Amino acid sequence: MGKHSELFAQTMGLVYPIIILYGLYIIYNGHLTPGGGFQGGAILAGVFTIQYLTTDTKNVSLDILNRIEKTIYLLLLLTGILIVFYMNQELTLIQKSYYLLLMNTLIGVKVSCGLTVIFYRFVLFESR
After folding, report:
1. Which of 39, 43, 89, 105 is the most exposed place for a label (fewest CB within 10 A)?
2. How many Å apart are CA 117 and CA 122, to the nearest integer?
3. DSSP for 55-84?
4. 3-state secondary structure 35-46
Protein backbone atom coordinates (compact mmCIF):
# COMPACT_ATOMS: atom_id res chain seq x y z
CA MET A 1 0.00 0.00 0.00
CA GLY A 2 1.10 3.61 -0.49
CA LYS A 3 2.43 6.14 1.94
CA HIS A 4 0.07 7.09 4.75
CA SER A 5 -0.48 10.62 6.00
CA GLU A 6 1.04 11.07 9.46
CA LEU A 7 -1.36 13.91 10.29
CA PHE A 8 -4.39 11.81 9.38
CA ALA A 9 -3.08 8.86 11.40
CA GLN A 10 -2.56 11.05 14.48
CA THR A 11 -5.99 12.64 14.08
CA MET A 12 -7.64 9.24 13.82
CA GLY A 13 -5.71 8.19 16.93
CA LEU A 14 -7.63 10.92 18.75
CA VAL A 15 -10.94 9.96 17.13
CA TYR A 16 -10.70 6.19 17.89
CA PRO A 17 -11.83 6.54 21.53
CA ILE A 18 -14.81 8.64 20.47
CA ILE A 19 -15.88 6.06 17.88
CA ILE A 20 -15.45 3.24 20.41
CA LEU A 21 -17.48 5.10 23.05
CA TYR A 22 -20.22 5.81 20.52
CA GLY A 23 -20.35 2.14 19.48
CA LEU A 24 -20.55 1.04 23.12
CA TYR A 25 -23.26 3.65 23.76
CA ILE A 26 -25.33 2.25 20.88
CA ILE A 27 -24.86 -1.30 22.20
CA TYR A 28 -25.66 -0.54 25.83
CA ASN A 29 -28.72 1.60 25.09
CA GLY A 30 -30.12 -0.78 22.48
CA HIS A 31 -32.83 -2.04 24.80
CA LEU A 32 -34.04 1.53 25.46
CA THR A 33 -33.55 3.29 22.13
CA PRO A 34 -33.27 2.26 18.48
CA GLY A 35 -29.99 0.50 17.88
CA GLY A 36 -28.38 -2.33 19.70
CA GLY A 37 -25.84 -5.03 19.17
CA PHE A 38 -25.69 -5.11 15.39
CA GLN A 39 -25.46 -1.36 14.87
CA GLY A 40 -22.95 -0.87 17.68
CA GLY A 41 -20.88 -3.83 16.50
CA ALA A 42 -20.74 -2.38 12.99
CA ILE A 43 -19.51 0.92 14.42
CA LEU A 44 -16.83 -0.88 16.45
CA ALA A 45 -15.74 -2.83 13.36
CA GLY A 46 -15.28 0.52 11.64
CA VAL A 47 -12.42 1.24 14.04
CA PHE A 48 -10.46 -1.74 12.69
CA THR A 49 -11.23 -0.70 9.13
CA ILE A 50 -10.05 2.87 9.73
CA GLN A 51 -6.94 1.58 11.50
CA TYR A 52 -6.07 -0.54 8.47
CA LEU A 53 -6.54 2.39 6.11
CA THR A 54 -4.57 4.93 8.17
CA THR A 55 -1.58 3.00 9.53
CA ASP A 56 1.06 0.66 8.22
CA THR A 57 0.77 -1.77 11.12
CA LYS A 58 -1.52 -4.74 10.56
CA ASN A 59 -1.71 -6.18 14.06
CA VAL A 60 -5.05 -7.99 13.83
CA SER A 61 -5.06 -11.76 14.21
CA LEU A 62 -7.83 -13.26 12.11
CA ASP A 63 -7.51 -16.58 13.92
CA ILE A 64 -8.15 -14.99 17.32
CA LEU A 65 -11.07 -12.94 15.98
CA ASN A 66 -12.57 -16.08 14.44
CA ARG A 67 -12.30 -17.96 17.74
CA ILE A 68 -13.85 -15.08 19.67
CA GLU A 69 -16.71 -14.91 17.16
CA LYS A 70 -17.44 -18.64 17.45
CA THR A 71 -17.27 -18.53 21.25
CA ILE A 72 -19.65 -15.57 21.39
CA TYR A 73 -22.04 -17.39 19.05
CA LEU A 74 -22.16 -20.36 21.43
CA LEU A 75 -22.68 -18.02 24.40
CA LEU A 76 -25.55 -16.35 22.54
CA LEU A 77 -27.24 -19.68 21.91
CA LEU A 78 -26.73 -20.99 25.43
CA THR A 79 -27.88 -17.75 27.07
CA GLY A 80 -31.01 -17.61 24.93
CA ILE A 81 -31.86 -21.25 25.58
CA LEU A 82 -31.26 -20.87 29.31
CA ILE A 83 -33.45 -17.79 29.65
CA VAL A 84 -36.29 -18.93 27.37
CA PHE A 85 -36.67 -22.47 28.62
CA TYR A 86 -35.72 -22.23 32.28
CA MET A 87 -36.23 -18.74 33.66
CA ASN A 88 -38.58 -16.86 31.35
CA GLN A 89 -41.58 -16.80 33.70
CA GLU A 90 -39.54 -15.95 36.78
CA LEU A 91 -37.73 -12.86 35.50
CA THR A 92 -38.63 -9.43 36.80
CA LEU A 93 -38.57 -6.36 34.59
CA ILE A 94 -35.08 -5.35 35.73
CA GLN A 95 -33.76 -8.88 35.12
CA LYS A 96 -35.20 -8.84 31.60
CA SER A 97 -33.44 -5.53 31.06
CA TYR A 98 -30.13 -7.09 32.15
CA TYR A 99 -30.80 -10.02 29.83
CA LEU A 100 -31.30 -7.66 26.88
CA LEU A 101 -28.14 -5.78 27.83
CA LEU A 102 -26.17 -9.02 27.93
CA MET A 103 -27.56 -10.16 24.58
CA ASN A 104 -26.84 -6.77 22.96
CA THR A 105 -23.27 -6.91 24.26
CA LEU A 106 -22.73 -10.43 22.93
CA ILE A 107 -24.24 -9.54 19.57
CA GLY A 108 -22.13 -6.37 19.38
CA VAL A 109 -18.90 -8.27 19.99
CA LYS A 110 -19.88 -10.98 17.50
CA VAL A 111 -20.80 -8.51 14.77
CA SER A 112 -17.64 -6.49 15.36
CA CYS A 113 -15.45 -9.59 15.09
CA GLY A 114 -17.36 -10.91 12.09
CA LEU A 115 -17.24 -7.70 10.06
CA THR A 116 -13.57 -7.21 10.89
CA VAL A 117 -12.76 -10.74 9.73
CA ILE A 118 -14.73 -10.20 6.51
CA PHE A 119 -12.93 -6.92 5.82
CA TYR A 120 -9.46 -8.34 6.47
CA ARG A 121 -10.14 -11.48 4.43
CA PHE A 122 -11.14 -9.35 1.45
CA VAL A 123 -8.17 -7.05 1.83
CA LEU A 124 -5.45 -9.57 2.66
CA PHE A 125 -6.47 -12.68 0.75
CA GLU A 126 -8.62 -11.52 -2.15
CA SER A 127 -6.44 -8.62 -3.32
CA ARG A 128 -3.73 -10.74 -4.97
Report:
1. 89
2. 9
3. -S-----HHHHHHHHHHHHHHHHHHHHHII
4. CCHHHHHHHHHH
Tell me the three state secondary structure of residue 7: helix
Per-residue pLDDT of the chain (128 residues; tens, 9 = 90+): 456 678 887 888 899 999 999 999 999 988 777 778 899 999 999 998 888 888 776 777 888 888 888 999 999 999 888 888 877 777 888 888 888 898 899 999 999 999 999 998 888 877 65
List the chain domain ranges: 6-125
Length of the chain: 128
Q: At what angle do helices 6-28 and 93-125 cross, to 10 degrees?
A: 150
Give the distance from CA 122 to its chain's centroid. 18
Residue type, 121: R
